Amino acid sequence: SPLPPRMAAATMCGAGPAGSARLGEDLPPPGPDVGPTPPRRSGRRPASSPALQLPCDDAAIAALLSPRKLALDCGGASAGGVEATKLLKASFGSLSDNRAALDLTGPFKDAERAVLLDSETRHVLAAAVVHVRAGSVLEVPLFATAKKFRGQGFGSALYAALAGLGRRLGLQTLVVSATDESRAFWVRQGLHAKTFCGAAEKSAMSSLEQRGLVTSFQNTTLMAAPIPQGLEPPPLALDQRDRDRLPGLKARAAASTHCYEDINDKGSFWVAADGSRQWRAPYPADEMLTGVDPNVKWVPYKELEAFFAGPTRGWGLRCTRDIKDTEFVVEIVGRCLSFEEYEQLEDKTYAVGFPENISEAKRAAGDRLQYIDPKTEGGLWRFINDSEEAPNLRLVYIPRFEKPSAKNPDGVLPKRAFLQAAHDIPAGVELTWDYGPAYPRPWKEAEASEAGGQALRVDEGGRRAAAKWASAEPGRSVSSPTPADVGAAERCRGEASTRGGTGEGRVSGGAD
C-alpha cells in the first residue's frame, strides 16, 4: 500500500434539449417568428467608444438559455441595473475603494458587463465583468451569483455563455479572479490556479502579469483554462428543494451503514497489549482548544452528515447549516498508532500521519503518536474528500508545534488535530481538505482506470472513487446508494458483530 497522506505537509498549512445549438456555431439569426429571442444589450456606450462589444446576439447563446427561461443582458455599467451592481459589489468587498471595475472606467473602460437574468421575472441571477486582453484572452475580473440562487446551476450557465462568446471572438484562454469561496466552483468548471494550469494557460497568465494587463484583487487567485472549442449546454440543475431532499446520513447512521464505530464523543485511543482500549481523554490542559483560544466556536456534530457525492467522488461530508470562517468543524479521532504499529497494518488506506517535520521531532523525543487510523473506530471526518487546489477546511494542531530551542529544550509536540473552516462555507457545500503533497493523485496523469472491470474515474477533489457504487446494470444512472447497497452494509455489520463478539467489527468501511 502507498504511504498515507501527511497531515498538513504543505499548508495543512451532456447534451441539451432537442434542437439546441452548440455555442459559437455559425447560425443565422432567428427570423421574426422562428427561434429564440436573442440576448439584449443595454447600457451601451456611444459608437465611438473602443469598448468590447460582446456578440450577445449569437443565436446559439439564445438557444442555450431560452429553454431554461434565462436571458443574457450585455453592455456598459448599467447592464443589469442597480441589482447587478449591488451583487458584484457585495461579492468583492475589496472594491469598496476602487469602483473602476464596477463603473467600467480607468483600466476597465474597454470592459463590459454580462448579466444572466430570469427571462420572466427579470431578476438578476448572476453577473460578470469581462475584458479582452492581448487579443487572445477573455479576462473575467468580477463574477458573482446571487446568494439566494446559488447551487442551482446559474453560475455554470453564465460561465458557459461567456466561454461561448469567447470562442465566437476567436479567443483562446479564459482568466478569472477567484475568491477563496469561489475557487472550488471554478475548479469544477475546469479552471486552475497557475501552479496547476497547463503550459499554454500558464504562459498566457505569466505574459499578462508581466505586462500588467491582468487584474488580481485582494484575497483573490488568478485561475485559467483554455476556452473550449465545443461547448454543450450546461446540465439542468436540481431545484434547491430537490437538493435539500438528497439523502444524508447523520453520525450514527453513517457508522452503521459503513461498518465502523463513531468515537467522536470519546476521542482517540491506544490499543493495549491485552487488546483493550486506553482512551486518551480526558486531555491535559495544554491539549484543550480553550487553552489556546477561549473564543473557540464549534460546529455542532449533529449538523454534519455524510452523503453520496456521485460515482466520481464517492461519499463526502457536508454541514446542514452555514459555517463561519475559523469555526472548528471536527476533530481527527481514531486509533493512535506508533510507527511500528502502523507498519503492521494490513490496510493502511485510512491511516494518516503528521507532517515530516513534526514526525521527526516526535521520533527524536520518543513520542509514540505518529498516526491516527479511523478505519474501524473514527468519526465523520473520515468521509471528507481531498481537494488539493480549493480546500475549504484546514488542519490545526494542538498544542501548537514548537521546535526545541534554548528557551524550551523539549519543544512542544502536537497531540491532537482539528479541521477548521478556511473561510465561510454555505450549508450543503461539500467539505474538503488538502491531503498534502505526499498523497498519490493518479487522476492527474489519467482520467480513468479500470477497477474490477468497471470504469473508475477520479477527479480533483475526490479521495476515493466509489467503484462499489458504479452501475451494476448497463445504463443505470448512479446518483445515490440503493436499498441493495444499504442491505449489503447491513450484512457487513452483522458479519462484523459475529466475528468480533462486541459489535465493533473490524471490517472495511467501504468506499467512503
From TrEMBL:
<dbReference type="GO" id="GO:0005694">
    <property type="term" value="C:chromosome"/>
</dbReference>
<dbReference type="GO" id="GO:0046872">
    <property type="term" value="F:metal ion binding"/>
</dbReference>
<dbReference type="InterPro" id="IPR016181">
    <property type="entry name" value="Acyl_CoA_acyltransferase"/>
</dbReference>
<feature type="compositionally biased region" description="Pro residues">
    <location>
        <begin position="27"/>
        <end position="39"/>
    </location>
</feature>
<dbReference type="Pfam" id="PF00856">
    <property type="entry name" value="SET"/>
</dbReference>
<keyword id="KW-0949">S-adenosyl-L-methionine</keyword>
<dbReference type="Pfam" id="PF23209">
    <property type="entry name" value="IDM1_C"/>
</dbReference>
<dbReference type="GO" id="GO:0008168">
    <property type="term" value="F:methyltransferase activity"/>
</dbReference>
<dbReference type="InterPro" id="IPR056511">
    <property type="entry name" value="IDM1_C"/>
</dbReference>
<feature type="domain" description="SET">
    <location>
        <begin position="302"/>
        <end position="436"/>
    </location>
</feature>
<feature type="region of interest" description="Disordered">
    <location>
        <begin position="1"/>
        <end position="52"/>
    </location>
</feature>
<feature type="region of interest" description="Disordered">
    <location>
        <begin position="465"/>
        <end position="512"/>
    </location>
</feature>
<keyword id="KW-0862">Zinc</keyword>
<keyword id="KW-0158">Chromosome</keyword>
<protein>
    <recommendedName>
        <fullName>SET domain-containing protein</fullName>
    </recommendedName>
</protein>
<dbReference type="InterPro" id="IPR046341">
    <property type="entry name" value="SET_dom_sf"/>
</dbReference>
<dbReference type="InterPro" id="IPR001214">
    <property type="entry name" value="SET_dom"/>
</dbReference>
<feature type="compositionally biased region" description="Gly residues">
    <location>
        <begin position="500"/>
        <end position="512"/>
    </location>
</feature>
<dbReference type="InterPro" id="IPR050973">
    <property type="entry name" value="H3K9_Histone-Lys_N-MTase"/>
</dbReference>
<keyword id="KW-0808">Transferase</keyword>
<keyword id="KW-0479">Metal-binding</keyword>
<keyword id="KW-0489">Methyltransferase</keyword>
<dbReference type="GO" id="GO:0032259">
    <property type="term" value="P:methylation"/>
</dbReference>
